[in-house]
Amino acid sequence: MKNIVVLVSGGGTNLQALIDAEKSGIIKGGKITCVISSKEGVYALERAKNNNIPTRVIPRKQFSDSLSYSKAILEALNEEKADLVVLAGFMTILDECVTKEYAYKIINVHPALIPSFCGEGFYGLKVHEAALEYGVKVSGATIHFVNEKADAGAIILQGTVDVLPEDTPEILQKRIMENVEWKLLPKAVSLFCQDKIIIRDGKTYAQE
Ligand code: GAR
After folding, report:
1. Per-residue pLDDT tens for 164-197?
2. Which residues pair with 84 in a beta bridge?
3. Could you give the residue numbers annotated as active site?
4. Which atom number of ligand 1 is nearest to the Cα of residue 109?
5. pLDDT greater than 90 at residue 62
6. Which residue has the CA at smallest separation from atom 12 of ligand 1?
7. What is the residue range of 177's domain?
């Protein structure tokens, strides 16, 4: 059984999707053993507590820079003996001291079709605002490994939804979460936990 540590910063609907997927047996070969939040008082922490998952809070605002914050995260991940780290709505970019030590062991969910609307500054609703502003006709979400560049690691899974004329950022966000994020994130986690993701030349190949 692989230890899955989930990093969160907000409402935690993707965390909930993972918890539900673990309970219903969709996630094979892994168990969520800890949830770490970058903010106090977020609802994701309640979701973890309601399901008896141990939590830690490492507030980003208590650290002056990304490196010192990342070192604190690294120490926690090592203490938790994390086999897989999932960034589920985690709004802080981690320094390479973490991404190098956990290379191909950190999975992120990004709410757009990478390489569009991604990188530094593109997070949460800002991503959907940018997609609507551009006028794209499809959008979606990407599940990818995390490397030292924001949203630039190897893609594991992607899924799409139509963008509709009346969409607001909130409506588009909800459609992408319900139809793509909450399904593909647990699927990617399960593939990882069963060692079914092959990496070749910086690209991934999933064995279904
Ligand atoms: C999700 O849409 C996730 O894809 C996005 O934030 C939301 C978090 O929701 N993540 C990013 O933008 C990361 N760059 P949640 O807390 O309800 O899972």
Report:
1. 999 999 999 999 999 999 999 999 999 999 999 9
2. 4
3. 110
4. 4
5. yes
6. 123
7. 2-206
